[in-house]
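Case study 2.
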Amino acid sequence: VYDLYAANFTILEWRERILRMVPIYPTRVMLMSRSDRQIEDAGDLEGARVVTRPSTSYERILLALQSELNAKFTILYSEDDFADALLADQADAAAIDSEVALSNIRDQRDLRISVELSDAQLIGWAFHPDDQVLAELFKRFIGEAFSSGLLDQLWYAEYRFSLSEYAELIGYDLRDELY
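Prediction:
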């Protein structure tokens, strides 16, 4: 029995049916590619090798895209760093969360964001479905951490841009939508 899963879970309808989810920040699934690879829309994935993690929302989006476009591209599965796979020419594109993609392109000029694959989604922590008190305390903590600027500082230490700057980059209003 668990009280808390302190991991970055995309808040999805099926997860909300079995867990108490508390949102922390927004994300979008994006395609990241090498700068010399011309991927302007999802149709440009024909024949491409796209790396992602198994059993994730990234995989779900890619499988739906394959079906929708009747596109023939190969999905490679990895737990390793996607940027390394792209730079080593082991993959043509990577489906990844926007905060990771943006951080990677700041570190590697040879990488770029090619295509947004999803609308904004929320990432959160998961609590036992009956543990309303702990979930509410965490929600209050996240709100206070945002209001005080602590969340921006922690975000900056990890990604080299604040949560507020990041939200603006992906077109998400944190105050109206989340905190």
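Helices lie at 13-18, 57-69, 82-87, 98-107, 132-148, 150-159, 163-169, 174-177.
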